[in-house]
TrEMBL record:
Record key words, sorted: DNA-binding, Phosphoprotein, Transcription, Transcription regulation
Protein name: Two-component response regulator YesM
Record-annotated Response regulatory domain positions: 3-120
GO terms (BP aspect): phosphorelay signal transduction system; regulation of gene expression
Keyword Ion transport in annotation: no
Pfam families tied to this protein: Response_reg
Origin species: Bacillus subtilis
Residues bearing the modification 4-aspartylphosphate: D55
Alphabetical list of InterPro entries matching this protein: CheY-like_superfamily (IPR011006), Sig_transdc_resp-reg_receiver (IPR001789), WalR-like (IPR039420)
GO molecular function, one term: DNA binding
Stored PANTHER family: TRANSCRIPTIONAL REGULATORY PROTEIN YDFI, TWO-COMPONENT RESPONSE REGULATOR
Superkingdom as given in the UniProt entry: Bacteria
Amino acid sequence: MYKILLADDERIILDGMAGIIEWESLGASLIGKAQNGHEAYEKIVHKQPHIVITDVKMPGMDGLELIKKVSAASPSVQFIVLSGYGEFEYAKEAMKYGVKHYLLKPCNEQQIISSLEEIIAELKRQDVHKKKTAHLKHELDHIRSFAADQYLEGLLAGVAQLSPPPSLAGKKIRLLILKGEQSIDAAAREALGSALTAVCSSGEWTVLAVEENAAEKVAEVFARKMAISQAGELRHAGQLFRDTAEASGDLHGSAVISKMIRLIADELGNPNLSLKWAAKDMLFMNPDYLGKLFKQETGRNFPNMLHEYVLNMR
């Protein structure tokens, strides 16, 4: 229901409008009446009507002053102006503040209803537009969130030559690293708000990239032991993760090495299984970099581990 406020210093006209118009049939409700501009303004501030029907000539604060003051504070409020003065200057002054409905007294019930119907139809169109815009924003935020999560996962996996989503280029973050998998659902994302840039989760650990100045505050949300990286650009998340994991006694391994070990087990019978094949065809990484990373995190090189798996299968 759209809320309507009436303002007129003539009690007969005020009560007449209030009683003759079937407000509910218009999808509206009458929320108040005022006999001067000051009273009208106080009720507008307190009750937040969608539409105000006001006389021009009122004591204390006239209708034009009321429109000017309300338009500055609440520009969404729509006005229907009533006046017994057929001078163009009043209408011209009211139009400066977006007033589209200016009725000359005496005006009948149907004229007021027609103006109300036009304004309410426009308000409904605005409401539909707002809902569509909010829905599109939600969908866009979801897409951006997914792209950010995928980008972070790629960085932690060591995927070469990744291009960041445009909104994340040069983004300064810190990583929060939790042992084990932590569900970050829609409610949690909403609670963290803009502080959360991206999330990457596996069975081994969960990594959150957050605004560099919000790391400690976000950490409090989870109330769990975690490691927090130094600040740096998101594009350096892989190195930030490795540096933090190396400095922490509670964090071991990384996503790419976990994938490599699973790959050995799953592809043991594949004649193409090799470091080069895994790097180029499965993980899309530089083989030399992958080999160094594998040796750094497992203490063994890939061929030796592969040989051990083959021996254990016999």
